[in-house]
Amino acid sequence: MRLLIIGGGLFGSLAAVHARSHGIETLVFDPGLDGAASPAAAGIFSPNWISAKMRAHFDLALPMLERHFGIAQIDLAHDDGRCEKFSFVSPLQILDPAPLRKTVTAVGDGWLEADGERYAGWIYVAAGVWCSQFASDLQITSKAGAAYVFAGERPARIRQIAYGRQVIAFVRDAGTTHFTDGTAEADYSDMHNEATLERARQLGLTETPITRIWGRRPYTPGGPVFKQLGAKTWLATGGRKLGTILGASFARRLVEEEFTRTR
Ligand SMILES: Cc1cc2nc3c(=O)[nH]c(=O)nc-3n(C[C@H](O)[C@H](O)[C@H](O)COP(=O)(O)OP(=O)(O)OC[C@H]3O[C@@H](n4cnc5c(N)ncnc54)[C@H](O)[C@@H]3O)c2cc1C
């Protein structure tokens, strides 16, 4: 049996990597929709950002991320010169390099249709904020934000701007500096965009950015969702600000628990 994954963001790509490492043939479908969250993610995480409720996900995710990608440690400098250590896996290491650029238009138990063609296999719906298209009872909302990329590599910085919220500038991708400020708005507008750019300027990033990466984080009430929709069909979403950790934890659950039980 092969695995067919709908969505090549962090959730879908982490499941693909983990399934392939267990010898499972896997196809990822993703047309690259505007507003996908994963390309914007900084890829930074810290035990200090994990609530007690999310601890089990963190403990499951870490060994899996270390095994497949290697977890880097980065030092971010506060304004007073104090350095704080964070863990980091770049989304660019994780995101599936060659998904089938097809939109999935219909899903049944053990099959899907894309571009008028039918494929059979286990199905994993990992379509971020678009998941409700495949599970009508799923309540899902989004909170948007944008990251800005500046030319050149600057020193890694962090500044606390509110409780649980930081602006961060660091080298996510060689030759550039990635800036993110934790903006997460249901009703995202130009005003939020301008506020993010202003925070970048306040951190010394005054030139025109070379790229803006805008994305919608998926939120589900009561916490992230992993559910079985049919004998051969599963869905996972609700990555919020923790897509790397939750995507990895759910990939382990899918491959190590659900498939083992189903096979
Ligand atoms: C600015 C910003 C910064 C962030 N920083 C971090 C961070 O530092 N650390 C962290 O852990 N998280 C971070 N996040 C959160 C993280 O990005 C999300 O939780 C995570 O990316 C969600 O992943 P996903 O795969 O569920 O969704 P997405 O990344 O949105 O992926 C869903 C994919 O499904 C595809 N799709 C949709 N419909 C279909 C269809 N019908 N057929 C085929 N494909 C389809 C879309 O094209 C899309 O690529 C950040 C988010 C933002 C916006």
Please outline what is shown here.
With 263 residues, the chain is an alpha+beta fold.
Helix fraction by DSSP (H/I, runs of at least 4): 10-25%
User: How many domains make up the 3D coordinates?
Assistant: 1
Instruction: Let me know the largest β-sheet.
Output: 5 strands, mixed
CATH superfamily membership: FAD/NAD(P)-binding domain
Mean pLDDT across all amino acids: 96
Number of strands: 16
Distance between the termini: 9 Å
Strand arrangement in the largest pleated sheet: 2-1-9-16-15
Walk me through the structure.
This protein is of the alpha+beta class. It has one domain (3-262): FAD/NAD(P)-binding domain (3-Layer(bba) Sandwich), CATH 3.50.50. The chain contains 5 helices and 16 strands. The chain has helices spanning 10-21, 55-68, 91-94, 190-202, 243-262, and strands at residues 3-6, 26-29, 44-45, 72-77, 83-88, 104-108, 111-114, 117-120, 122-125, 141-151, 157-162, 165-170, 176-180, 211-219, 225-230, 233-237. A 5-stranded mixed β-sheet has the order 2-1-9-16-15, covered by helices on one side. A 5-stranded antiparallel β-sheet has the order 11-12-13-10-14, with helices on one face. Strand 12 and strand 13 form a beta hairpin. The longest helix is centred in the C-terminal third of the chain and has 20 residues, at 243-262. The radius of gyration is 18 Å and the shape is globular. The N and C termini lie close together (9 Å). The model has no long low-confidence stretch (mean pLDDT 96). The site of flavin-adenine dinucleotide (FAD) has 42 residues, from helix 1, strand 3, strand 10, strand 14 and helix 5.
